[in-house]
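## retry 2 of 3
previous attempt timed out at serialization; input unchanged, resubmitting
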Amino acid sequence: MDSHIIQALKDIVGADRLETAAEELQCYSYDGTGQQFVPEAVAFPESTEQISKIMTLASASAIPVVPRGAGSGMTGGSLPVAGGLILALGRMNRILEIDEENQIAIVEPGVITGKLREAVAPLGLFYPPDPASLKFCTLGGNVAECAGGPSAVKYGVTRDYVLGLEVVLADGRILETGVRTRKGVVGYDLTRLFIGSEGTLGVITKIILRLTSRPTASKTILLLFADMAPAAALVAAMLKEHTPSTLEYLDNTALGLVADKLPFVLPAEAKAMLLVELDGDGQSVALQSSRLDDFLAGHKEILLCKKAANPEEVEALWMARRSVSPAAFNLKPDKISEDIVVPRSKIPELVACAEELSKRFKLPIFTFGHAGDGNIHVNIMLDKANPEEVSSGAQAKEALFREVLDLKGTLSGEHGIGITKAPFLGMELSETSLDIQQQLKKLFDPLNIMNPGKIF
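## retry succeeded, writing output
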């Protein structure tokens, strides 16, 4: 990036809002994948107008631009694989409006997801999407990846709450999509097109979000089983009659990794766990809990049913669930982390596949995740310093993807495609689908400067 471009960027955002020093660039060169690509510069815009000017400049000079939130993505979506400019959107972190009467919020992309939840809670309102990283991930990143979370089984994912967007296009034009009403069918649904587009079509600068009424009560229940098959069968039966707000599971290996985090001694015969949560107002939760008790009493395959007696026990149970990913490094120093989705009834087959792949490739492979919607996290543990394990991990990943598609599933539930899944896109999408999507990319970004190298 030549000195004239650097100066032009400084003129737009201010000299103190542009970084080119090598040590600063390193801070924006990685994400949750552990891979690293160093940008040529990092800009910290504070307004839509600044981003519009930056994109006009980038388009005129064919400079790659990568929008970035907290960098917590798991597929490389915010990595500057072609160098160029990082747009760090953390300074655009204002909650612009909370409309209590119509239950909507208008936010900038750098707002932390958990901060929005905290802001609307005193007003009796609730923003349901709850990715595991909600305490530090940003709403712009959530929209770009269509993030989910444990509560998706009841409340849905990010796209179910986005009513409209403001987006700066590759050539600097500002596009407004969607509405701030609950209904609206004027023209094509461009809002949905940008959700999950991973910054490849434009830079999201404003988000109109739907809110709901805040639950005021909850009940958390842990269930243990001797095998994953009866646990998955119970999930399918439970969802026919009940609507839990979360329904998580851990397989045998995952359960063993966090056994010491549970507020009780794990029975030796326990090989699978379900974590169930109900929410609503006090009266509805009491009724839901009573009905669920009657349902569970008829299932003798449950080894243990434990209800959290107080907030401390609730936190301990969820701490165990959240500890699975970091605890995985007790097995190996590196991992391939996938978030595939299969029909709920196929979860036992997916777990069996993971166990078979573990034996075949001689690597620890385990599963956990969102049993309620079949969105399963599969961790393939390996040592990247060992070329044989790297090769085996890559083969195990491809074999896993083929099994997922054979089970009528999909290769990504909430992490997106980025660079780690891009080579496998053709396994799931037809040539026609890929062609149409690539034409859309070219329409919005003819110079391929918007987050190049991602998805396709």
